[in-house]
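Reminder to self: tokens first, then the designed residues, so the page reads top to bottom the way the pipeline ran.
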């Protein structure tokens, strides 16, 4: 059971999701059809009764034509040109073993951003579609090992390896271990 007052970040994300839906004039049912997410889950996420998972946000970002970093930056003030390490926003999906730090938050006038990702050993994150079709990504593994699948093609990556991809379909990120993995993801909107 969730506490009386929701997490402030969950509340801001929920409010922004409700704004995006209302701005398009969609009912919860229409958004459910477009995203493949149930009406009740959408409603609970908008009211911050649940914390949105990476998978849920990815589906909604796809519908709204945004990257996850863009959506998360929209719940914050206008990003500064310089972002100190202590001020970089961290978002976590503990159940999935995934954490992402927005190293260089997206900006409306720019197409690129840097994200630090961390997966715990055994973490397995699958996205059924990109948030923005044709999204260019460069994944540089700093520590550990990752298995990344882009469409039907699998890639085994170790520390120092870099995978360049343009994403149109499903992707999967798996950390087989031993230990966790840490990587930098450079994201460039088309």
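Designed residues (190 positions):
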């Amino acid at each position: 059971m969730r506490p009386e007052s929701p997490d402030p970040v969950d509340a801001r994300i929920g409010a922004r999701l409700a704004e995006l839906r209302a701005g398009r004039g969609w009912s919860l049912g229409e958004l459910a059809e477009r995203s493949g997410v149930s009406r009740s889950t959408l409603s609970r996420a908008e009211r911050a009764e649940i914390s949105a998972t990476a998978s849920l946000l990815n589906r909604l970002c796809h519908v709204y034509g945004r990257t996850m970093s863009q959506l998360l930056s929209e719940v914050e003030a206008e990003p500064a040109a310089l972002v100190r390490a202590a001020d970089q926003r961290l978002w976590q999906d503990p159940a999935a073993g995934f954490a992402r730090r927005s190293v260089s938050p997206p900006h409306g006038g720019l197409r690129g951003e840097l994200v630090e990702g961390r997966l715990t050993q055994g973490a397995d994150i699958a996205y059924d579609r990109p948030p923005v079709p044709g999204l260019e990504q460069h994944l540089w593994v700093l520590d550990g090992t990752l298995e990344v699948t882009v469409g039907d093609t699998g890639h085994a990556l170790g520390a120092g390896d870099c995978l360049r991809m343009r994403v149109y379909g499903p992707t999967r990120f798996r950390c087989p271990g031993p230990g966790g993995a840490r990587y930098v993801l450079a994201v460039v909107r088309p």
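The chain has a mean pLDDT of 89.
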